[in-house]
Amino acid sequence: MQLLDTLHRWTGGLIGLVLGLLGLSGAILVHKDAWIGLPHSGDPLRSDLGSVTRATEAIMAQPGAQGIIYARDGFGLHQTRFGEGAGAYADQTGQIVTRWASQWERPELWIFDFHHHLFAGDSGEWVIGIAGLCGLFFIVSGVILWWRTRRTFRLRLWPKRMSRPAIVTHHRDLGIVMAPLLLLSVVTGTMMIFRPFAMAVVAPFGSIAAAEKSMAPPKYKGGPLAARPDYAAMLAEARRRFPDGEFRILSLPRKAGDPISLRMRRQAEWLPNGRSTLWFDAQTGRLLGARDALAMAPAAQAFNKAYPLHAAKVGGLGYRIVMTLSGLTMAMLGSFAVWTFWFRRPKPARARPRRIATA
To answer: Which keywords belong to this entry (predicted)?
Structure first.
C-alpha cells in the first residue's frame, strides 16, 4: 500500500497540471456554442436541400476554400477552412460573417487545439494519451487508497484550509465522489487518442477485427479536382442515399486522385458530425462509394459513441453541466496535487541532539 501511495503522489506531481489544464479547457469547450456569440450563430437550422446547396456553392466559390463544417442545431453558422489556420464563418445563405487568418484570432479554435494537441500536433496527442492513462491509474489507485480512510469521509467543495493536510483530505474525499464522472471523461478521451486502448474498451460489444475493418478508410481513386465541382448533384445524391441524414462535413481532396468526401449524421447517430460518409470522384462528381454508420460493426458503433459522451454532445444541458463539473473537478484535483507535491511538501523532521549527562 505504501508503494501505491508513493506512485500515486509522484505521478500526480508530474502529470497533474496537464490533466488539470485539460479538464479546465474541456469544461470551457463543452459550452462553446453558447459563448461564441457571432451574428446568426443562434439562427435555426435550415436543413432543406435547396438552402444547403445554395450555401455550399456560395462558400466553396471563395478562393482557397477547402471544405465546410455545416451548421447544426444550436449553432447556425457554417465554418469553412482555407488552410494554414485560416477560415471563416458564414450564415446559412452563404454570406461570410467573419474571417480569420490564424487560429489565434478565434478562442474556440486555439482552446480546441490545446485540448486535443497541446499546440504540438501528433506529439501533443501522445502526451495527452499518456496523461489519460495516468489519469486512469489515479482514479483506480485513489479509490483503493481512500478505502482505508473511509471512516473520516467529509464532502467539501473546497478545502477547509489551504494547508497540505486539509488539501490532501479534500482531494481524497472529493475524488471518490467524482470518480465515476472522472472515469468516464478519462476513458472516453483516451479512447480517441490510443486506438488499441479504444479497441480493448469496446471489445465486449463485438469482434475487434470486424470493427477495424468497418472503420478502415476506403481506397477510392478518381480524377483531378474539377474547376467547378457539381456540388448540387453530390448533395442530392447524398440526400437520396440517406434521406434522414444531416449534412455535416464536406472535404475537398488533399492530393490529386483522392475523392471528395461528404459526412452525414443519421438521426440515430450520437456523433454530432456523424460517420455516414459518401465519396465522390473529384472530377466527375460520380459516387464512388458510401458507408452507413448504422451498419458498421457493433464494436465500431460503440467506439463512435466515445466522443459525444466525452464532449457532452448528447443529453442536453443537464449532461453538459455534469461534464462541466467533471472538468472543473479534474482541474482542481490536478492543480492542487501539483501544488502540494512541489510547494507544500512536509519538511523532514530534524533529529534532536542528545543531552550528554555530566557528572
So the answer is: Membrane, Transmembrane, Transmembrane helix
